[in-house]
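Session log. Operator J.P. requested a structure for one protein chain; no other inputs attached. Running the standard single-chain path with token output.
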Amino acid sequence: MKKVIVFIIILISIDGHAQTFNPNQLIGTKWQRVERFSDPTLTWEFTKTEIKDSGKYKDPEAIYVSVRKYYFSPTIPAKFDWNKVGKGDKGRYLVYYVEKSKRFFYLRIESISNDTLKFWNEADPDAIGDVSRYVLYKRIK
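Structure written below.
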């Protein structure tokens, strides 16, 4: 029993020291998605309060643009907290709201460097065919 308690304490302390990121690392940058099966036109551009998501889907001549409010959170949120948008809080998770579906989503930030942005996307249990995976972007601005 003591070993189990010690193990749990170690896990909690490891999680408590997880790297955090600052939204200032992304403000004014633009990123292109570079996953193996991804459309190379998918981009994210960051302002202080919004992610401008753009790309092409079925019609190669039409470019969609979606603007999403976002913030960073140290923990997985239970709901979208509008009061945190644009506040500059550090965190391990990028939390964003999709107006069209009236839902929020989050990605665990794995790394932010000068040229690479890497997230962990946990599969949505409500989405058929969704899988947990890394999502990788390269910096283009």
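Operator note: The chain is about 10% helix and 40% strand.
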